[in-house]
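Q: What structure does this chain adopt?
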Amino acid sequence: MKKVLALVLAVMMLATVAMAAPKWKSSIAPNGTIKVDQSKGITGLAGDYAKVTVSNGDDYDVDYECVPDGNGGWVMDSGVTARTAFQGGVEEMLFRSVTTENYTVTNLKVPTGRSLVKGVTINDKEERVEVAFVDDLNNTTAKDFDLSFTLKGKGKMILRDDDVANYNAFTGKRKEIGDRVTVPSVKFTMSGKVGYGKVEISIGDDTDEEIDDLEGMGVNKGTDVVKFVKSDTAPAGSLKRIAQAGAYTADAILTEEYGDAFTLEARVYHNDVLFFDVDNAPDRDIIGRLADSDADMDFYVFNSDTKFTTFNSNAKLYFNDADEDSFVYQIKDKKLVKVGTYSEDDGCWVVKTRTLGAYVVSDVELKEFEATGSVDGNPDTGANDVVGIATALAAVALVSAAAVSLKK
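A:
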């Protein structure tokens, strides 16, 4: 690592760190998205709670179940086939790429968990349907959702030789190669449980311990809220105030690595409840206004709910790939504010902050976006992803104006 612990411990006590796993596993986290496209079918749901039925809206439908994809994620795999069902997968039911040119989202119904679902949209750039959920970190108990919608086919298509068999089986019609037909509609019914897991990690009373590697303790940063609690063997009582220092003693020093790109180092205390996930998605507004720039930018965006991203004392963010010629900004009110300093000792850019936010690291100065002043002395942090302007533009989703949104 390129960093040194800011707090040198006079006495380091090795303590056992215990973790209590959530009592349930959600099908999807509140900030998650179920995705449907022509090449991958359905992705995003996970576990035994999830169920999807895909049909032509009439006599043919297929039930799906979640299975591991071999890379730590989940995909929907064809399970028990209902009725005298169509035997193909979602890929065979979607006869055209999922764009607003070929489909419209209609008949959206959410009989259960309406407040959990943010909306259903067609993402033209990625050519897929996206079912988005409301990002609520307070939702740490399992809540059921049940929704359905139809991808209504638009326009005509000419049947190719590899379309005919699937088209006839799916629609129950008898067509031949070269026939001109309407793009078939597809109905989706999805259900599961949505919510974050709350994982409790036991730490000492008022003794310093070093905790590193949350994932090694079974914490999924993308789906778990972490609560730090005193171990069962520790004496009862609240933290003691050090009058001379005017601060609380740290229950533990947390050192969390986010790959090679950056490291978070912070003091954690009894009853701290924190969320450590980061998002590397480029900021669409900033990328759009810098479309003519040759800057390479990395985006690091923590959750916007500051209740779960604020520490009791300054945390340190080590942007390990940011050298002395780099520029580090916090995104604040659509402006970029320079933050942090380059550390010769650590060999990287270091930002101090109490609240984790949204950051961008650039290889060139972005003067046209700078705001005056600074934010909290040093701004927020995020996760890493090296994205050139051209690549980032390609990655930004263009959400269709035909999106169907839910009103809470």
